[in-house]
Specification:
- The chain has 868 residues and is of the alpha/beta class.
- It contains 23 helices and 29 strands.
- 42% of the residues lie in helices and 16% in strands.
- It is elongated, with a radius of gyration of 51 Å.
Length: 868
């Protein structure tokens, strides 16, 4: 049974009373029930379920308990009745048992407070150096009712090795004899309960369930064990909800609604396991009834036999209920004892007084759901009795209290060497001596032979019960058993009456759509559907995995078939390719036309001395334009290398020619004196400079192609069946070095031309600025848009080539044409033009400037160089 179980409300302490009733100097809150005796049994049980104003507690003071729990109350009475039955027998001749009862009210700290008072000697807490000789008033402790309370109590009692026996605390941790050496229990550990629950679930093929448990050490431990056992049996936990273990929790109503929301929203789960206190189950069922939600509920042992739940309003609307309970029996004479309930002569029981005040009090403001309809006709509530407890509480829930008391008295009988007529031992014994006997005692109760195992637990098994409908209520019916020795559930299906006359289904019933496959979730019992990855396709419905596409084919995510790859490249017929072709043809035609035109006008003063350099520059541009053509069509490794070489060398040759012009302009301003003129005339090696500058680029290409040559790559586009076939740059270092080298030449051209500040250097300044601007803008795009690198590079190359044409070639046309127009002006202006023709200079050049004169002396062939 669970540590929450409603079965055993008590911690039972047995201690020797050396004096009279006056020895009990505890306050009423600690000594709620008492009867003197030679050996007094102390009962610590949560008769009340709440502590009033616990959240507002700020200083140590007395606790005020509320909400009398009838199940716990009846269980404590079962202990008292069993003690009195033994006193009226000769089982312990010459020894009278007494009892002392304390109520921890379901709160762990108050449970320690109760035990502290029970351990007190003459009202003072015992702190001893020799624990083994400590003789406290109590000799043994039963309980507590909940594992959450039994755990701290067990730690304290283990200090003195005072035996503790619980009737319902089933947390597995309590079987650890290293941590809790003095703890025993007359029920199995929850290690077996979770196995029984899983076996029941598998018996009806429910493998898709929900779990609602408590937020405490007990609840977490049970959940962990259930999940482990469920995984081994391929039972899947669809959801887990946790409720506060303390009933007075301020937000408990909100927590109940949240759990109800989860149960309602998980409509595919028809079976829910509840490891909760009965009061929490009642609150949850009320919410389910309000929402008109039915499920099949599986009860933890804490509430599987709770009578008030069976009688709650509309209980038949929640659905079928199964649960496990410990093997139980009837307590002889106990029902008559409850029908004539009153403290025994010489005893005091404030809990009986509290119950009768609640049951038979006629005050209007103090009436409760437990108040008798005839309360106002009762003269003395403390003398009144009825059948209410017998009808409300399942008597079998108190049977384990009888077993626990008999385990103790059998151990006492052995320790005190009792015969049929007397007990020769000392009743004021050391508690640890009783513990050593309890661990190994074998005793009989109602024709059952019982004993503790090595972990201090019982291994008696469980009864499987079903809550059957009986009018508006439910009644228990044993429909099977769980046998610990073989770990199986035996079910008598003929006794089961299903609400819908059929076994409910609680399975993972998902069906994967075409293009999806199963992926296991949480356990092997169920799965989620996931789309097939790109490159895979589904073969059949509900398949475990997707099939890989054959070579040369591909598929999108979630596809049902594969298709051939669509290879994209710069086809000749594409719009961009046509634009590139037109631009290239126009550019080459401009260059060829210019070349022819310049040759025809080679005697013109504008180009007379620069025709060779102009031809070299335009040839470089034509080679660069030719490289653009190689970017079109189906690419190959050879195309990839050739396109880079043609552009790189062609444009480098062109920029080298421009650089010589810029260099001349720069030297012109540096050569002011005749000495400097003679010195700088030594650098009149323009074609050697062009060859050296272009040759350096050749070396860059050699190293580039050796260590990382450009090649063809086919790259897949995400979420598509398209591959882009394009040239890669191979080594990005080589690719970058080629462009950086051209950029360096362009920067040098710009700086030299800008420094020269001659009118004919303006084309150099603008063309180089234009080139640098274009490539600086292209770099971010080239880095980020990897799929569009070919288009970006082609566009940048095209714009760079046209920048040179616009800044250098077209102005030359304009000057030649303008000069011819000027030469054909009317006669009035012709005389002035003749003078210019005789000298071979234009009117603007008839009087050379000093700077032009010095330039002519340095580079005689460039006296009128207007190239580029």
């Amino acid at each position: 049974m669970s540590g929450l179980s409603t079965r055993c409300v008590l911690v039972l302490g047995v201690f020797v009373m050396l004096g009279s009733e006056g020895r009990c100097d505890f306050t009423q809150s600690h000594c709620g029930a008492y009867s003197p005796g030679d050996v007094v049994i102390g009962i610590v049980g949560s008769i009340n379920s709440k502590v009033k104003d616990l959240q507002n507690r700020t200083r140590p003071e007395e606790y005020t308990c509320t909400d009398l729990d009838l199940i716990a109350f009846v269980q404590s009475l079962a202990v008292i009745h069993t003690i009195e039955t033994i006193n009226n027998s000769s089982f312990l001749p010459g020894i009278k048992l007494g009892y002392l009862m304390c109520d921890p009210c379901g709160y762990g700290t108050k449970a320690l407070d109760c035990v502290e008072h029970m351990l007190a000697v003459n009202g003072s807490s015992a702190v001893l150096s020799d624990y083994s000789q400590f003789k406290p008033p109590i000799k043994v402790v039963l309980g507590e009712r909940y594992s959450e309370l039994s755990i701290p109590v067990a730690r304290l009692l283990s200090l003195y090795m005072i035996p503790q026996i619980s009737c319902t605390s089933t947390a597995p941790a309590l079987s650890d004899k290293l941590r809790y050496p003095s703890f025993l229990r007359v029920v199995p550990s929850d290690i077996y309960q979770t196995k029984a629950l899983v076996e029941l679930i598998k018996r009806f093929e429910w493998d898709w369930v929900g779990v609602v448990t408590l937020d405490d050490d007990y609840g977490r431990a049970v959940l962990e064990m259930f999940l482990q056992d469920a995984k081994e049996k391929t039972v899947c936990v669809r959801f887990q909800e946790v409720l506060p273990n303390y009933l007075g929790f301020i937000n408990i109503t909100q927590s109940i609604k949240q759990a109800a929301d989860t149960i309602q929203n998980r409509s595919d789960v028809n079976v829910v396991l509840l490891i909760l206190r009965p009061e929490l189950v009642e609150m949850l069922f009320k919410e389910m009834i309000r929402r008109k939600i039915t499920r099949t509920w599986i009860a933890g042992d804490a509430w599987s036999t709770t009578r008030f739940l069976m009688k709650m309003k509309d209980i038949n609307k929640v659905g079928d209920i199964f649960g496990f309970t410990f093997v139980t029996g009837n307590i002889p004479g106990f029902e008559d004892y409850l029908r004539n309930l009153r403290p025994s002569p010489g005893a005091r029981n404030d809990f009986i007084r509290e119950y009768k005040h609640m049951r038979f009090n006629c005050t209007q403001g103090q009436k409760s759901e437990h108040t008798s309809p005839s309360a106002c006709n009762v003269t003395d509530p403390q003398e009144a009795n009825d059948d209410y407890l017998v009808d409300t509480v399942d008597m079998t829930e108190a049977y384990s209290q009888r077993v626990a008391v008999y385990a103790i008295v059998h151990a006492i009988r052995e320790l005190l060497n009792c015969s049929d007529t007397s007990c020769s031992g000392d009743a004021d014994f050391l508690p640890w001596k009783l513990l050593s006997i309890l661990r190994h005692v074998k005793f009989s109760v109602d024709n059952q032979t019982l004993s503790f195992n090595d972990q201090g637990d019982f291994e008696s098994g469980y009864d499987l019960v079903m809550w059957k409908k009986s009018g508006d209520d439910r009644v228990l019916d044993v429909v099977g058993k769980f046998l610990i020795r073989n770990g199986t559930v035996e079910v008598n299906e003929s006794k089961i009456q299903w609400s819908n006359n059929t076994v409910p289904i609680s399975k993972c019933l998902k069906t994967c759509k075409p293009g999806e496959f199963k992926i296991l979730e949480l356990s092997t019992c169920c799965y989620e559907c996931k789309k097939c990855d790109p490159g895979f396709y589904y073969v059949s419905e509900d398949q475990a995995k997707c099939q890989k596409c054959p070579d040369g084919t591909h598929s999108l995510s979630g596809s049902v078939e594969c298709t051939k790859w669509e290879i994209q490249f710069l086809e000749w017929s594409s719009g961009y390719s046509i634009v590139v072709l037109i631009g290239t043809v126009v550019g080459i035609l401009l260059l060829v036309s210019s070349l022819i035109y310049f040759i025809l006008h080679r005697n013109n003063s504008i180009i007379e001395d620069n025709i060779i350099l102009s031809c070299i520059m335009m040839f470089g541009l034509m080679v660069s334009f030719g490289g653009l053509i190689l970017f079109l069509g189906w690419p190959s490794d050879h195309h990839c290398r050739a396109q880079q070489v043609m552009y790189g060398l062609g444009f480098t040759l062109c920029v080298s020619c421009i650089l010589t012009k810029a260099f001349v302009s720069f030297l012109a301003i540096m050569s002011i004196s005749p000495e400097r003129q003679r010195f700088f005339s030594k650098f009149n090696k323009r074609y050697i400079i062009i060859a050296l500058l272009t040759g350096a680029q050749v070396l860059v290409f050699l190293f580039w192609f050796i260590f990382g040559s450009p090649k063809v790559e086919e790259k897949e586009l995400p979420e598509s069946i398209i591959k882009i076939r394009q040239c890669t740059q191979g080594s990005l270092v080589g690719f970058g070095a080629m462009h950086v080298y051209i950029a360096v030449l362009a920067v040098v051209c710009f700086l030299l031309a800008f420094k020269g500040k001659v009118d004919d250097t303006e084309p150099i300044v603008f063309s180089m600025l234009f080139h640098l601007f274009v490539w600086l803008c292209s770099i971010p795009l080239f880095i980020t848009q990897t799929d569009q690198r070919t288009l970006i590079q082609v566009s940048a190359m095209m714009v760079s080539n046209y920048g040179v044409i616009v800044c250098h070639v077209l102005p030359k046309w304009y000057k030649i044409i303008s000069k011819k127009i000027h030469d054909t002006k009317p006669k009035l202006d012709h005389d002035m033009s003749e003078t210019s023709e005789d000298s071979g200079l234009s009117p603007e050049e008839e009087l050379p400037s000093p700077r032009a004169s010095s330039q002519a002396q340095l580079w005689p062939e460039d006296a009128d160089n207007n190239m580029m």
